[in-house]
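Minutes, structural biology subgroup

Action item carried over from last meeting: produce the C-alpha cell record for Golgi phosphoprotein 3 (GPP34) (Actinorhabdospora filicis). EB confirmed the sequence was re-checked against the source entry. Recorded below for completeness.
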Amino acid sequence: MRTLRLADELLLIAYDDDTGRNRATGLELGLAGSLLLELALSERLRVDGRKKVHVVSAASIGDEFADEALARVGADKPRTARSWVNTFSRKLLPRVRERLVGEGVLREEVHKVFGLFPYRYYPLADGRGEGEARARLERAAGNGVAGDARTAALAGLIRATSLERRALPGLSSWEARRVVKGLAEAGWAGEATREAIAATQMAVIAAVTASVAASTAATSGG
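Output recorded by EB:
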C-alpha cells in the first residue's frame, strides 16, 4: 500500500468506517489545505507575513494533487493561503476519494433512497493507513506534543474541519478540542513550517466559517 498523504488521512478520519458518510465540516476546504501543507512540509512553499504563498522550489514531491497545486501557485501572482484553499477545494474531494477507492482503501456502495434514488457510500475496506494516522495522533495526545511536523499538520486540519472527537474518540468533545489545538500549535518544528501550518489552518477555518455562514443565510433568507 502506498504511503498515505495528509489529504488521504483527513478524508479517512472524516468518513465513517461503517456507513461511509462524511462527518467533517468543510472537508473539501480541509483537503485543499492539506495540499498546501504537503508542499510546505516538503519545503516547496513558504507563507510570508501577509499570509501570501510563495514557491520555494518547483520540484515534484510525487503526489499528483499536490504537484498540480504547486504548478498553479508558481504560475500565478502571490495569493493568500485562504484564496488558494478556496481555489483548490473545487472538485478535489471526489478525486481524493476515487484514488482511495482505486487503491482498495475505500469501497464504493450504491444504495437507493426509498428504492428509487441512487446514493453512493464509501465505507472502509483497508484500515491500515487510517489506523497508522490515528495511532500517531493517539501517541501525540498521550505525550502532549505532536513530535513531528506531519502529525501537527494533520492535527491542524482536524481542528479546522471540526473532527477532533472523531480523531480522538476516547476523549470528551471538550478535551479532544483542547488536545488537538495543542498538538497543532506545539513548537516542535522550524519557524517557517510553523508559520505555514498556522496560516493554512486559519485559512481553512476562515473558509469553512464563511461557507457555513453563506449556506445558513441562503437557507434562512429564502
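Discussion: Residues 191-221 form the longest helix (31 residues).
Next step: EB to file the record with the rest of the batch.
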